[in-house]
Amino acid sequence: MHQSVEKQLAAIMFTDIVGYTTMMGQDETKTLELLRQSRAIHLEQIRKHDGEVIKEMGDGMLARFANPLDATLCARDIQLDARNLLCKIRIGIDFGEVTVEQGDVFGNGVNIASRLQSIADPGGIFLSSKVRESIGNDCDIIFDKLGELPLKNVALPVTTYAIADPEFPKTSHHRKKELSGSDIIESIAVLPFHSLSGDPEQQFFVDGMHDALITELAQINSLRVISRTSTLRYRNTTSPMLHIAGDLGVDAIVEATVFKDKNHIRIQVQLIKTIVKEEHLWAKSYDRELKNVLSMYNELVKDITEEIDAKLTQRERDQVENYYEVIPEAYETYLKGVHYWEQLSKEGLDRSLECFLKSTQLDPNFAPAYTAMAGVWLGRAQMGFVNQAKALPNVYKNMYRSMSLDGENAESYFWRASLHTWIDWEWDKAYKAFKRALELNPNNAKGRAYFAHLLAITNRLQEAVAEAELSIQLDPFNELIQSLYGMVLNYARKFRSAEAILLNIIKDRGNHPIAYSTLRTVYFNLGEYDRSYEMFKVSYLEKGEARSAEILEEGFREGGYPTALSGVAEYKSEDRDGAYHTPWQIATLYTRAGNSERAIEYLKKAYEIRDPNMPYLGIDPIFDRLRDLPEYQELLNQMYLNQFFNKVNHESN
User: Fold this and answer.
1) Beta bridge partners of 125
2) pTM
3) Are residues 164 and 38 part of one domain?
4) Membrane spanning segments where (predicted)?
């Protein structure tokens, strides 16, 4: 009798209950009830997502789907529905050609899905790169790349991803290393340096050395280096090294103590491997005159990279050998300026500018001080401490002076890219400058976070999300980086994922203006206007805008969300509180209120003053209701943004 054999593309999903055999041995009746409940969840979700159950295998199931998106959404919903069960489920998914014979399926895809299921985290979902690539940007799910994993009875390693939504288990860095079978040091964190001088006034210098070593190490492309912001939480810590390494997701940790006496520095450094256990690899002392501090950083980087056998390009090897003497007073003054700059207050920025200016007076050829002055002037303008007309000439003057002294400086390229993006609106130049900045410093979390925004602005949303996720890996505890990630998720219309990220920031930090402003936008985009209203009210109160909060509340009582937002827009447009409100801010209020005419009026004003928020005009979902208006399209044309949006489908997932 002829047997029907058919080849077809299919997504294969394997599921399994964790510890089922053990549970059966402990309480058979209870375990059978869990199995019944799990089976009901599986069947309901597989049917809902147009899948087909191929067979049940004791405590698990094998199912087939026409496309990977259906399989992934089904797996996600199974796990979410199973949260209340007294058991955990593992799920694996692959996509490819399978052989269908007499209702069963065979092939490499079936084997891969089975192996992925067997190594998945309890309560988690592992899927192959074929599934991830097929899905693209078509669902509101966060994915975590686990790397190339060897699977039993599979010839080649499989690039594997895990669903990383907040409700799902996080695959730890150490487990990723365990799954990949790698014992190579590929990532490192430098903990805050400990000062032995006993002088609190020297803390700025010690912090500056810590930052400088991270910056030097960060230029090594083969090494993932955690940014300083996330390591500062471990200042004077008593936590075990393995615990810190797990938090930061690194294979090794650098610790150091510093003693400074006038123009002499001594630093003692140790390197600790943290992949499986705490293992002290190396320790060394360095003594230098302050004028040779840059050569000390280079020697440190050279010794660390040699110890861990990091692969360096020729440019990186040249960089390690390249240094110059500094004028001690200029260098110390520069580090003091960095200390004040990081306070991000008006007083801090003013004092940092004084220090950087003095540094350039002491050493007119010290490029980092000019780069820093450009950054401070831009920061003062963005925060409203000075107007753009005063700030921009100083930004450009100092940036170009820095470039003339050190043309291949990553920080200089970053500020150049920022100006091209948010001030000049020159997208190609911005892209090239960001790419060069990240070539010179691939571990620049801030650079990657803002590059993600340029990618979003120019409608490269899948790349934008991936770049933003890289910035999180490099600086996992930086609330600004997290907020910028939440904004990218919102632009990519991954609204629930954005909500989860932003709520976590508010939970940990409380008052965080970017998180609040983005979250109220996310709720608007979801059509959850009551929650958006609440976020508006809280954010106004947190900023001390009591009257705006009152007007919002009065309007909401009278006519709901549109009336509330319209009332605040009128209040701000008339400057009745004596404060300056940007036309962009007023335009977004009118847009949410449904007043397209007034929204366009203020968007035109924002364009005229080159408001730094205008680049988001094409990508922000709140403007969906304006997209068919000729005036809106004309603004996109004037900003050369329409080229990125001519064929865009703006429907939300």
Assistant:
1) 91
2) 0.86
3) yes
4) none
